[in-house]
Design goal:
heterodimer; A: 350 residues; mainly alpha; abc type-2 transporter like fold; four-stranded mixed sheet; 13 helices; 4 strands; 63% helix; B: 307 residues; alpha/beta; Rossmann fold; six-stranded mixed sheet
Amino acid sequence: MQIQPTTERQHPLWQLILMRWRIFAREPGAVFWTYGFPVLLALVLGIAFRNRPPEPVEVAVQASPGGEAWRDALAKEPLVHVHWLKAEEAHRALRVGKVSLVVRAGQPRTYEFDPTRPESRMARALVDDALQRAEGRADVTPVKDQLVTEPGSRYIDFLIPGLLGFNLMSSGLWGVGFVLVEMRVRKLIKRMTATPMSRTHFLLSFVFMRGLFLVGELPLLLGFAHWVFKVPIQGSLLLIIALSTLGSLVFAGMGLLVGCRAQNTQTVAGLVNLVTLPMAICSGVFFSTARFPEVVQPFISVLPLTALIESVRAVMIDGAGPFAVARQVAILLGWGVVSFAIALRLFRWQ
Amino acid sequence: MTACPAIRCCGLVKDYGAVRAVNGLDLEVQAGECFGLLGPNGAGKTTTVEILEGLLNATAGEVEILGRTWGSAGDWLRQRLGISLQETNLTDKLTVEETLRLFRSFYAAGPEVPALLELVSLTDKRRSWYTKLSGGQKQRLAVACALAGHPEILFLDEPTSGLDPQSRRQLWGLIEGFKVQGRTVLLTTHYMEEAERLCDRVAIIDKGKVIALGTPRELIQSLGGTEVVEFTCDGPVEEAALSALPGVHAVKGRNDSLSLTVEQLHKTLPLLLMHLQRSGRTLTSLSTHHATLEDVFVNLTGRQLRD
């Protein structure tokens, strides 16, 4: 059969990006880990660490004549839950932990409690304060309480930037590094380099794909956080998008680096874990980096995930501007440039 | 057509550590020729082809494709070669059409995707994922990918390995259609039937060297006879006495069986039977066939192609 060649064709870079997208979208597991998992994690952790209303302390008042006044005074306190018990019952309740403190009748009034239990010490302070005030004590200095449970300072507010960074890191390293090695194992990279395909186009398709994922990842996680947990964004949304894009590219570069030579998927899986695990623990995804000893702080602060999470957190929670996160941006740029440069030099095409 | 050969290499050597896979190999393939590299597994066929395709660097030797070298005209050559690797695993979850569109986009010029689909009879399967295709369909898709740039030279490494006879014949038809257009094909195979049917010339490769070169007909005629008699009997037979029989060109013993290359079966066979009877031997099996490239290989190396 005679076939007529034409010069009409689609742009190879576009076709490569389409290929990457189709492979991703047709793999339910990949879609879940990229989009579903971070949202699920935010939901679970957000519920587990949600701020509960303060719990009242359990207090027993020994049933005795003259004790009624104390009982009634304590019943008015919102943070005290009072029980009216006989002497031996009250003692037993304290011993088994049903109440934190027993108020015993007599002169002077006696507080029976275990000082090693924090809630007992708290009960002692609350009860004594309430009873003294009921009996006419006046405060020497006027004070005012300011309660800080408003959105912006809760655990979920701290968590969302961490999850965003964590997700960009793991999807970047797995999505680039692991996928590249899988293609190498199947000799697909070899097959493609046997065509006139531009190697730059091939690698660019991975980088563009990361950017494309972000278009879904970012609104999904931030939108979810906003609608479900009312997580506020104090700073510029544009700056958050810019930082996430930068972070995404940095981790694409690191993915390229871990996948640039590995000849089998076990090796690359090990490498990805080696890179991501320390950062998942140290870079402040789930808890503050300040919990690590002072001596390791300089190392932690220059990790790419630390830089990304710190900067996004600063913008989201404190409303930081571009200059306030310049140091983190410089760290990210450094990681990105070095990773890409080394990866391109070492890349194994065949 | 240019005057220079489509493919030329000389003194090709490839070492993998201490192992020499290709050992001073010379080849010249003319434009418009279908050339076969025939040899057992591990003979160095694939290594040779991948060096010619510019996918591997040779340890020593020269390669010229369409009169140019990979070092000076890599991109120019890539546009003009179609390559099907020995094991092609295309992307599992891309459809036939998507895969072809991707490969087509790499080449400046080539057939349109529907024409390619038609050519390899995969129009009905164009929306199927690669992973859902049969072995023959996968292989036809691999060939279609190789044809996406309307190549001047088509490299096919073991194109029908592991396929059922029907799929194999379908692929042969495809390759013959390409030959008709006067373009060059280099294929490797360990099926002599395939080489005899498709190839204008064949180089038999063993241990990284060309041990015989010519048209399939020439190579078979080099055996002296064109018929092969294979037999076993209940006791030893002297090989020298068999060689002395009129019309016998060669005698090869393998395990218990003996094989004679003869010119004319109807004259030599009765003499053989008489000889065995006189020596007091009884036949336990007897078969005859036309000589093939396999017999050429056995004659040259004393081994079977597919050992």
